[in-house]
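My current task is to audit a protein record that another person submitted. I have pasted the whole thing underneath without changing anything:
***
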Amino acid sequence: MMNLVDGRRTLARDRRTAVPLWVQLRDALREEIERQELREGDRLPTEVELEERFGVSRSTIRQAVGDLEAEGLLQRVQGRGTFVATPRIRHLPVLTSFSELLRSQGHRPSHRPLAQRVEEAPVQAVQALGLADATPCRFLERLLIADDEPVGIARSWLPLEVLGPHDGPVVRAVEAGRSLYALLAECSPELVPAHGVETIRPTLADASASRLLGCEQGTALLHIRRATWTAAVRPLEWTELVFVPDRYEYRVELRSPPTGTSDD
């Protein structure tokens, strides 16, 4: 609960409220970030300044700031202070393209083609999609860019049998920086991804990823594996993505099971 004093927001001091002071402070700081009163790269006021402004203890401040750090809204820099972090891209459990995802969150997406060739489907793709061994696929490797900054790498395998006559147009358009999913939809409604399964795990940046993403070799990365099928349940795509976790996070919204359910 917030009050206004001399045009500045302060915390409610009514001890009867069920909202703890650290939650009020966290929400007040989050609101200032969302309103861009505190902008990306701005230094957060010191604990002394926050203590004077809001009239709360340092333990309350540390709990509120720690929660915002965990959310990715603030970033602590050793010896310099705490700053408003660059907004993270939120990967949602929706079958959508990288470009569509970024645009929905106010970012500017782009791609840089790295490689394309015909090769056999990797073992993981064969197992996940139920392909025959040595199925020829179109391999595409792309650098994923958000707001002119590299954030991830995508490596995709699409069975040539499924692409059919659209293989050449897809390759040319991807090399021109177009979104893969948008291209597939333009080529044919039979190539629209309709169902997918993702698995997520950590991995470490190798020399190539380190160079492309501008991080140190051995840096922890988010590794996503995705298998997709068409509406006709034809195997369409096997993609492996790696992302820098300080710019990209996976978000899943959870709900309680319906009441009245039973394990019996």
